[in-house]
Write a structure and sequence with these properties.
434 residues, mainly alpha, two-stranded antiparallel sheet, two-stranded antiparallel ribbon, 4 strands, 58% helix, 5% strand, disordered N terminus, disordered C terminus
Length: 434
Amino acid sequence: MTASSDDKPRAPATTAAAAAATAVGGRSAGRNGWAQPQTPGARSRKVQRRLTAPRATRTNAIHPGAWWLWALGLGTAASRTTNPLLLALLIGVAGYVVAARRTEAPWAHSYAAFVKLALAVLIIRLAFAIILGSPIPGTHTVVTLPELPLPHWAKGIRLGGRVTAEGLVFALYDGLKLATLLICVGAANALANPARLLKSLPGALYEAGVAVVVALTFAPNLIADVQRLRAARRLRGRPDKGLRGLLQVGLPVLEGALERSVSLAAAMDARGYGRTADVPPTVRRTTAVLTLGGLVGVCAGTYGLLTAEGGSYGLPVLLAGLAAALAGLWLGGRRSLRTRYRPDAWGVRAWLVAASGAAVATLLILYASYAPSNSAALHPGVVPLTAPTLPLWPAAAILLGLLPAFVAPAPENTRPKAAHPEKTGPEITCKEPS
């Protein structure tokens, strides 16, 4: 008995037909080859996947120099204002980017320590204003402390006395600015890989770069050692808090730091650290003259830009000094025999990260110099006491610092997994054997 043509199974649609069906009217090919309309959820997920930053890998990771430029831009913006609302906004921007793009590396967990250090600096600044007094005159007395008489040679210094609200507010603004700078530096330490940063330095700065990187990684490594030892003591049922726990953790931490220093020295010696190539004396003298002259030009140009009298010559001298310093560094790199394995590429995303920090600093500087009245918004007065206001344009400029949270590749531990309900298979249930 033969089957009729209607009973025969239909052949599936070819790939070309499925693609044509997808191209017509935004429809996708179904199981039988017929075009089926896409659901709004599927379309939104496709758009979200296109706009979302990719996962971070070794090849597409952001250059560590870009993270430092971004953080220095935020720090420059923080140094141009004492408005507590703008400083709090800068702290929030730095914290959000760190939370969104921080990895699980040991050096990436140093941000919390910098936040605690910033809080300690703020408290110490307020304590100095209470105990030693403030140069800001005030009329609103908060408390009057017993004043300790000092000898005549300590004139101008007092211990105790009247504490005014104006002096406390001035100390709060000043300490908050310094705390914001520390938090911006902590954000750079948590996001930039120090080993990759050292590898990206030019050959002329390699020796100095090693010292700087070792100094920058001291705090993250120390914090990682303390956390590891405290966790080990908790697992053994021993106290890890208080003065006793701190003393018993301190000795292993110092021992680990000594062992790491010896291992670093051995690794540097094995890799030929400090060996240089033979360079003619003329090249060495030219390199020294260009480097030193360029640095002097950069200092003189920066001073000219910061003073009112040097506005005409500051920028040309700064550019000339910068060009001479770069030429000296290029010539000095010829003495280095070091090669780079898999150098980090400075891609489009790295440019966007660095440009966002530079834009924040530039816009705040331009806002302060545009009109004298703008300075009052960036530096709220304390005599008489006035409530700080949030200026619109500086706040919008600071929000540009959030760009790295969206363009930088997301680490594996922070990237949420998208749900695909249309790809889920049938539910499988298991029965227990009777």
